[in-house]
TrEMBL record:
InterPro entries: EF-G-like_DII, IF2_II, Small_GTP-bd, T_Tr_GTP-bd_dom, TF_IF2_bacterial-like, TIF_IF2, TIF_IF2_dom3. Keywords: GTP-binding, Initiation factor, Mitochondrion, Nucleotide-binding, Protein biosynthesis, Transit peptide. Pfam families: EF-G_D2, GTP_EFTU, IF-2. This is Translation initiation factor IF-2, mitochondrial.
């Protein structure tokens, strides 16, 4: 500790950093030198030491207290404060100096009803870390309110449901160019939605089934389970039995969904083609309750694993029934009974134990048990009595969207109710369009799409997102109006969410900073990609590079070429743009260069992560650490006596030779004796010859005075430690996994 040997007074006390050098010491600086020259030290060494020892005067002693300013106090190793012992001692002194009256005043208590609050016993002040005030949530998001709307509701009814006055709703109606005469006027469901959007309220469209034909519909199924348990293989195997595969000679395109038909019964099952929980929860988050049944894939040789439990939780929270597919039953180590037992322990009530959850043993690799799985799904669908309105305007959800060079934005949708007809105007999320073409899963154009039928639609003006709802509107004008209204609402919501996230992140960052002792910087990124799924995957991959020092903030992710608004956004928040599988035109590149926005074009995810990883390393502030920069050996010791001419009030100078690296005056000195650290403290003075020096290199001799230490011995080793900034590292493994190691 820097404050060892505190009992010693005189010049030693003055070496303590932060204390004032007493005048008495100054007076005795030109003093006798008693040198204890070691037997090992040669004559020449002791002579040269004696020369620079002469230089240890007041000037040099005061210099080191100034040089202390350059000492790195913000390191992770140590801080220099007055020690508890020093402060306690100061207090003792202060007590002694108090007059009798003063001491009495301290002890006399005030009599009466209100006694003076007793002074707390003096404790040495503890250096309390600065705790920054918590950031207040400035932008509190509006409480999410959702109201049901329906065709033909009155303005008064909407006012009642939304809580907004009729007058305000009427003024909005005037603004959007709609006519009205009274509050009892009926309005269309599209106008009702537009009004609700303008006042920041979400809507749920209610479709009347009155007078419509309601028929059984096929179930829509999602496959979930633990990684490597065979979800993709099972989907592949099922796809090979699909209608598309049969009709197109086994060649199927990945279009987001496929239908497996049962020729005997004339029934069918629609499978969503995106396995995994992310797609499922993303769709749910966007309000799309597309999935009717979850197929839970569990490998018979592996059993219930963390993501199996996650899938169960997803299905339960969405209130979607499960059918278990025990896969890999062809494997020698397969133990379906064990899987069943594990599932039962997780609260899955299998049919075997009298519950209602079916479990089927399959092998995706050998395509066995698939018919049994399909049967189980149909049975489950019958149990659920799935029915849908067939006629009337369609209600549908987007399961996947992509941009096609020739055909523009394309979306794979699944109709939930009603019938979608070619030529209709639709609004999807905040996009709109006229249905130029509808294609079924084998790419054949069709005029209409009925419930549970996955189709690809063409004719949209922009690219929608997975989970967006599809609604049919009466005219192009309505479609435009509603799409504009939704865009405004979504943008408002987005900004609010971004602001909330920014404030939360700033608060979290401040917490990390105060805990970890370093500043966390932000790396804002705008992601652009060719398809929406890829943009999401790229954003997720970039987020894995998040580290305690650099926060990867995906400010926006979208589809298509880099637009001017992307550049504006990137410029406004100091972001770089990641363009994945996106062609960068020369004009876009030029604009980016003009706006000083860094653009990363990539087609291989690993290369992209490597680039961004390196950028993160560059941006990271790093952590300050102490590193041994040099070593010196003590060859002789010189003592300068203090005023009282005793050894206690003098100062010891170590005559050393730098054996390795360099010894710096601003460094932290560590004294080792027989390999053990006996003292650590700052360097009070460093001299070569008579000169104060900042550093001494390898092979040179020097005189060194260390903090409070007076007990050097010949053969001691003095290590000089200096702060270095250690930056994080970008680590990549052979499997392609990457991370930032701090
Ligand atoms: P996912 O991560 O759940 O989509 O799993 P995959 O479908 O990618 O399968 C992971 C591995 O398990 C692959 O090597 C498959 O070949 C293998 N696999 C999948 N199903 C079976 C099966 O029924 N039997 C055997 N023996 N291997 C399978």
């Amino acid at each position: 500790m820097a404050s060892r040997h505190l009992g010693k007074k005189g010049i030693q006390a003055s070496f303590r950093i932060g204390l004032v050098l007493p005048r008495v010491v100054v007076a005795s600086t030109e003093r006798q030198i008693s040198s204890t020259v070691s037997k090992r030290a040669s004559e020449s060494v002791s002579f040269s030491f004696a020369r620079y020892i002469n230089g240890f005067g007041f000037g040099s002693l005061s210099n080191w207290s100034r040089s202390h300013e350059s000492f790195p106090t913000e390191t992770s190793i140590r801080y220099f404060h007055a020690s508890r012992e020093t402060l306690a001692k100061r207090k003792e002194d202060a007590d002694r100096l108090l007059s009798h009256r003063e001491r009495k005043k301290q002890t006399v208590k005030t009599k009466g009803k209100f006694s003076k609050r007793e002074k707390k016993p003096d404790k040495p002040p503890v250096e309390a870390p600065y705790v920054p005030p918590r950031l207040k949530r400035l932008a509190k998001g509006l409480p999410e309110k959702t109201v049901d709307i329906f065709e033909g509701m009155t303005l008064l009814e909407l006012s009642r449901r939304t809580g907004e006055s009729v007058a305000v709703l009427q003024s909005i109606l005037i603004n959007v160019g709609e006519t009205f005469s009274s509050e009892f006027d009926t309005i269309s469901v599209d106008v009702a939605e537009l009004l609700a959007m303008e006042i920041g309220i979400n809507v749920r469209r209610q479709h009347s089934t009155e007078g419509s034909e309601i028929l059984p519909r096929p179930p829509v199924v999602t496959v979930m389970g633990h990684v490597d348990h065979g979800k993709t293989s099972l989907l592949d195997a099922l796809r090979n039995t699909s209608v598309a595969a049969r009709e197109a000679g086994g060649i199927t395109q990945h279009v987001g969904a496929f239908v497996v038909g049962m020729p005997d019964s004339g029934t069918s099952i629609t499978f969503l083609d995106t396995p995994g929980h992310a797609a499922f929860s993303e769709m749910r988050a966007r309000g799309a309750a597309v999935t009717d049944i979850v197929v839970l894939v569990v490998a018979a040789d592996d059993g219930v694993m963390p993501q199996t439990l996650e899938a169960i939780a997803h299905a339960r929270s969405a209130n979607v029934p499960i059918v278990v597919a025990i896969n890999k039953c062809d494997k020698p180590g397969a133990n379906p009974e064990k899987v069943k037992y594990q599932l039962t322990s997780e609260g899955i009530e299998l049919e075997d134990i009298g519950g209602n959850v079916q479990a089927v043993e399959v092998s995706a690799a050998k395509s066995t048990g698939l018919d049994k799985l399909e049967e189980a799904l149909l049975l489950q669908a019958v149990d659920m009595d799935l029915k849908a309105r067939v006629d009337g305007p369609a209600q549908a959800y987007v399961v996947e969207a992509r941009l096609d060079k020739g055909r523009g934005p394309l979306a794979t949708i699944i109709v939930k109710a009603g019938t979608l007809v070619r030529g209709q105007h639709v609004v999807i999320g905040s996009q709109w369009g006229r249905l130029r073409a509808i294609r079924d899963m084998i790419g054949k154009t069709t005029d209409r799409a009925t419930p549970a039928m996955p189709v690809e639609i063409e004719g949209l003006k922009g690219l929608p997102m997975a989970g967006d709802d599809v609604i049919v509107v009466e005219s192009e004008e309505r479609a435009r109006m509603l799409s504009e209204g939704r865009k405004r609402k979504y943008e408002k919501d987005r900004l609010l969410k971004a602001e909330e996230a920014r404030i939360e992140e700033a608060a979290a960052r401040m917490e990390t900073e105060s805990e970890e002792g370093f500043v966390r910087v932000e790396l804002p990124i705008v992601v652009k990609s060719d398809v929406q799924g890829t943009a999401q995957a790229v954003a997720d991959a970039l987020r894995t590079l998040n580290s305690p020092q650099v926060f990867v903030n995906i400010v926006h992710s979208g589809v298509g070429a880099i637009s001017h608004s992307d550049l504006d956004l990137a410029q406004a928040c100091g972001a770089c743009i990641v363009a994945f599988n996106v062609k960068g035109g020369s004009s876009a590149n030029l604009s980016a260069a003009q706006a000083s926005v860094k653009v990363f074009h990539h087609r291989v995810i690993y290369h992209l992560l490597e680039d961004i990883g390196n950028l993160i390393v560059e941006k990271a502030p790093g952590v300050s650490e102490m590193e041994v920069s040099g070593e010196a050996e003590v060859l002789s010791i010189f003592k300068i006596l203090g005023k009282r001419r005793t050894e206690e009030d003098g100062v010891s100078i170590a005559g050393c030779k730098v054996m390795d690296g360099r010894v710096c005056r601003s460094g932290l000195m560590r004294l080792l004796r027989s390999g053990e650290v006996v003292f650590e403290g700052s360097c009070a003075s460093l001299k070569r010859e008579k000169q104060d020096v900042e550093q001494v290199g390898k092979g040179n001799e020097c005189g060194l005075v260390m903090g409070d230490w007076n007990d050097f011995r010949v053969g001691d080793v003095i290590q000089c430690m200096e702060p270095v900034i250690r930056k994080p590292k970008f680590i990549s493994s052979e499997s392609g996994a990457v991370r930032i190691e701090c």
